[in-house]
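Give me the fold.
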Amino acid sequence: MQTVVAIYTGQGLADPLKKVFQELLPDVRLVNIIDDSLIGDVVRAGHVPELVNRHLNQYYRHAEELGADVILNTCSSVGDVADEASAGGAIGVPIVRIDEWMAARAVEGYARIAVLATLPTTLEPTLRLLRRKAEEAGRTVTLVSGLAEGAFDALVGGKPEEHDRLLLETAKRAAGEADVIVLAQGSMARMEQALTEATGKPVLSSPKSGVEQVKAVLAALEQAKAAREEG
């Protein structure tokens, strides 16, 4: 049985992602590592502080010790840390950014992309990822920032209706300048249909596409293993 270790910086996405795994990868062993102190540290600092970077790399190494075939980095705010860990070669298994395929699909299909976020610390890494994916694909895109100010505080303050209202208002403003709306945070995926209906624009979210990428990576690993055994 293949193992995926998902690393979370907060509690909100674990249950929704579990359902996606049950749908797309029912035979995979899913292990969750959740440290909900991390996103608070990132928000307070306004960037990824060195301590959070170190903790994440410790979790990547622990995931490897747990037998991970693939590590899923579920938080877009710390996606750059996952990229650096992958490039550095210290982690011996693939690390998938939950938002990577979402970003690739956005730049492949649309020229004007609105990025919706409730935190600047998530908005900026998502914009960087979209620019990189556009460059890799040889595409020219226009990015529109849609920061729903106050929405994150409303959510953590126990006011989900206020969070949703602010998100919808921000989406409507950004939609006029965009062909598609990208949701920077996986926890927003539950609003995908409501945002599509409110704006008339397609909306892309990361949980399902992130797990689809994990599935593709696992399949490639199995094929490589079979080829080695045949050789």
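Strands lie at 3-8, 29-34, 70-73, 95-97, 112-117, 142-147, 180-183, 203-204.
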